[in-house]
Each structure stands twice: as structure tokens, then as C-alpha cells.
Amino acid sequence: MRSRVLAGAALSAVLLSGILHTPAAAAAPAAAATAGCAWQASTLPLPSGTTSGRVSATDHQGGYSGTAWGADGKRRVLSWKDGTTTDYGTGGPNDSVVDQNSTGTIIGYSPLGYAPPAGHAWSTRNGKKAPLPRPATVYVSSPYAIKDNGDILGWMWGTFDGVWRTRHVRWPADRPAEFEVMPDLPKDAVVADVDDDDTMLLNFNANQGTYAVGLWRGGVTTYLAEIPGATRTTVRAISNGRVIGETTRPDATGKTSTDGVLWDRDGSVHILPGTASVSGINRDGLIAAALDPDRNNDYFTGIWRLQTFDSVLDNADSGVSVVGNDGTIGGHRFNPATARFQPTVWRCGR
What we know:
mainly beta
């Protein structure tokens, strides 16, 4: 669970100082190396009628959730816990799981159309998916976080008091038929994630003239340290004050490349060498990142402990979606024999 509540309305910008650490001599980790954990993969079961699936969220206590699909293309929302699979029913072909809290409640998004865009947020309740409330003038509602107390945060797009706009909202757990409009975020801000202390992780789009990234809490914006030479930087996730993302910049030869990045709690920023993207971080700084295929890593996923390389998942064409606070990793593996995706959990075998 990544907790999420907004407070305050006044905005101010504070520059977060940091030192850029770029170990130029560090080579990309070899795909065959296992410097740390020997990660053991376990395939999760799929219900009858489905052939592929993936893990998307975790309760951080050994439970996971995600989607499965078969020949009809429709998605089924599933959870796995203590050897039991729960099926929440069939949705549309693009239904997605967004988050899960420690009590097992799952939130997600169901797109209903693209021209104009339309879709709704949902949560699991009493063993089924249920749409979250929204006014009739809203075309899109989407969640991005659920707290352990059941409160859900997200956004809506539509007309409010006759004006087309995006509003950020909270669906309170104790009033499931209601929602609350929250204070507006800074201009051009897009929420990437929310930490357990309610800090929101933000990307700022190009309308601001720069691809800035930052934190927002109590109405105050704190920008993360910039990376020298970066042409674009994007943040993905935050946990226990640490942030991961990617940056694009020219290398020593002038070729543009993208690297995974860690911003630590002291404000310092570290390039994760040999990575192309990041996909998850837990409260202890365990990080999953896709290794750069241009550096002969054959689409493997690497594991870091903060800025120190740990090991490589030994399954090519695997993808990590979430890193649990219990030290497990959730995602999917591609089975070339069946051309199917298998929902998968990895555990450290050390």
C-alpha cells in the first residue's frame, strides 16, 4: 500500500538540493550474474477460460492482484493470497488493476471509450468489482491509490459548475456512495504515485517549459534534483521517501540513451547503470529495473538494493510490476512455448 491524502491549499516551490552520482566506470551488469539473491519464480494459477495474466499490485503481506484474459480478450480481475485465487469477474478488454491495500481491497480503471475519452474507477467490494461514484457530468474517473483504511484517491475529468476541468478527489471508505473534491494540484502536474506519509509524486508536463519532477505535500511543491544534461526526466514510484524514475540524456559518444534513476531520501540522485527503465521500489530500497537491451542484456530485469546492483531475474522477457515490502516481487513471465504471459511472483532464495 502506498498511502495517499492531500491537505492544504497554499503553494510554494522549494528546491531540493542533491549531489549527482554517476559512476562512469561502472559497466552494465551481465545478465548471467547473480551477485545477491537467487530469485525463485512461482507461477500463479489462472481460472478456467483464461490463458494469460499478470500481477499488478500487492498487499505487501504475500497477497497479489492483477488481471487474466483468454480468447475472448476480456479481462478478469484476480487476487492471490495463501494459495487461494479470487475471481472478481469479467470486465472490458483493457481493464487494469491500479493498487491494493493491506486488507486486500483492489482498485482499478475500466476504459469505456476513446472518442471522446470515457471510463470509470472501481474497487472490489463484497467479492465483486463495483464502480466508484461520480457525477453524471464526469466522463472519466480514475484512481491512483488506496490507503490501508480504505480511502481511495484519484481524479475526474468532466464539467464542474459548468467548466471543463480535471479535479482530484477522495472516495472515503466510511461513505462508499460519496466522494470529496480535493485541492487543486500545481499547474501542469500529473500524479505518478503517493507515499505512505501522503506525499504525492508529480511529473510536470512540457507546457511548463521543462520536464520537472517533484513532491507535493501540504500544499508545498519540492522539486527533485535535476540531472545535468537531461533532456527529459520522468518519475514512476515513491516509497519511504525514495523515488525512482528515468532520465534521457546524451552519453559520452553523443548517443541519446535512457537510464533508471534513484533519488534517495537525502536528496542525492543516482544513475542505475545499464538500466533502461524502472518498475518498482519497496520501503527498504529494493528496486526492479529493466536492463538495457542495447547493452546485450536480452530483456532481463535487474534487482538493486538502493544504488547497489544485487542480481538478475533469470527469466528473459519477464516484467516486474510491483516490489512488495515483504521482499517479494510481482509481475509476469513470457512463456515462448505457449506464447502466453504467466502471472509470477519471485522470492529471494538466498
